[in-house]
Queue: 2 jobs
Job 1
Amino acid sequence: MILVPVSGLIAFVLSLLFGVAYIEFLKKKMFNQYILEDAPETHMKKSGTPTTGGVFIVTASVFASVIALFMAEKTSAGAFLLLITYVFYMFAGFQDDIQKIQNHQNKGLTPRGKLFLQIAISILPVLFVTISGRTFVTFGEYTLNLGWLYPLFGIFLITGVSNAVNLTDGLDGLAASNMVIALIALVLVNLIMGNIDIAIICAAIAGACLGFLYFNKYPAKVFMGDTGSLALGGVLGTIAVMGKFELWLIPIGIVFLCETLSVIMQVTSYKLTGKRIFKMSPVHHHFELCGWNEKKIVFVFSLVTFIFCTGAVLLFWKLNG
């Protein structure tokens, strides 16, 4: 069990070390972010900031996870499949970021192309869980076996969470700070369930995100890009599917869920009535246009995640401890 925090510490240190070198590499190669034209005016100054920082988040956390898993003798097939899925999502996001850089605008893969890659990658862990017969969804004493409908549910969940984190990554430190809190909650949930291997991986990713925050806090020196956000969202959903606590992502990922719902509500309202519910979506941009600065938004959103995660972990422990 001691190797769980050790995994996080190793990832944190590696993230800091890799980050320094990788950011210098990005500056030399001009791997810079291009800002959407309809983004808030305050974001225009962010143009030119190095992006694809997700590379050193994933690299640091994978290295730390493998080291800790071998030390703990918890090298299960499920753990390595989880890491492989994580890396695949990173490559999908990296492809999107590279196209944006090459096109000199904030347009990479087509929405269909990106969605296809996300779905294709999510099939790996979902089939693993389905073939092993764990096609049920539980909440406390209640269990529902979805049978062969589970693959559809699992693919939808992983893809949805990947997109949710991607939508949240719009302010300096916003996605990373909420990921750290959510992942620490998942460390505790997995320890309660006895999933030491998954707990080690969660701790490693949390540590890497914390190291990334050193460079990504306002004003950001680097952005994670889709390289990081698709990977972090994808692995978050995969952790829930392989750990069998899918429904608990609702409170643990409450901010990611609200960001996604704000976009759905905005688009639906505009198409049906021609009116917008928010000044801009995702909802963090709405608060920006209401006069909140980035630091305040990140703090409040992180506080909301902390409160919901604390409640979720306590309830999970009561129901399953």
Note: The chain has a mean pLDDT of 92.
Job 2
Amino acid sequence: MKFLDLAKVYIRSGAGGGGCVSFRREKYIEFGGPDGGDGGGGGSVTAVAVDGLNTLIDFRYQQHFFAKNGQPGMGKQRTGKDGDDIVLRVPVGTEILDEDQETVIADMTELDQRVELARGGNGGWGNLHFKSATNQAPRRSNPGQDGVERTLWLRLKLIADVGLLGLPNAGKSTFLAATSNARPKIADYPFTTLHPNLGVVGVDNAEFVVADIPGLIEGAHEGRGIGVRFLGHVERCAVLLHLVDGTSETIADDYRTIIGELEAYGGELANKPRITVLNKIDALDEEQLANARFELEKAIGDDVMLMSSVARTNTTEVLRALRAEIDDDRVRQNPVEEEAPWQP
């Protein structure tokens, strides 16, 4: 399934049906009178967050969602049928924006969350409503209320506990593949990852979700590269894992490039808890490792962790450090199964 995190949709709620002008005319009935029924209400357009979706690809093939109009009222005090509603099923984490792409109408962060995007028009009154002592044969009715037409943008921000950051080829996809069942594309050229990947990792009987996004480059906040458009997927993360390529000749500059892009992106992204890891240590000898670690710790001003995703060196320690930064209510606990006593 292709990944799509931005979609434009056109919605329109149904118009209400018009009221009916009718009079009761039956044989052997001495007094008739008005009996026009009301029009039915128009259908509404609603969005609901559902489970099992992690892309907006469905909205690439259908962009127009028009609810049904209400039926007009009829004689014999019969009310018109209400128009059918339209429900937009979106993944959890979807932001619904107005046409300007800035005004947030709703943020669908919870499962089964529901929001009304366009309410259907009310049905008009039939002439029965206008009967009075001084007007016993009214010949007027109300038209139905018009529907609401809107243009909206859907922007998906994946719900993940950990977000992976780093330059292209820093080893993010390799780490995700080594610690989860996810199988992202891995190759020795930049921008192998073209869209975010999610993986569920487990450590110490706890599971949490890790998001791997395309690599960032210098100037990404100005539109260079492809990673900046996916930074929104790590806005909701509890902690960021910053991977630095230990084989790079500019380790300190690589680190500062990513931090600069986080700060330029804005919001609270740069202030989130962050764990920095020197990756690919299996490709370094002792002297190279010591120099690389010294250079990175000098740039950060703090200790860094060492890891090799390919050799699975210290991956468990890194996962435990990430787990310590995640609130308990975000983590799924796996109870330890006690072994049944042996029986002959």
Note: The chain is about 15% helix and 25% strand.
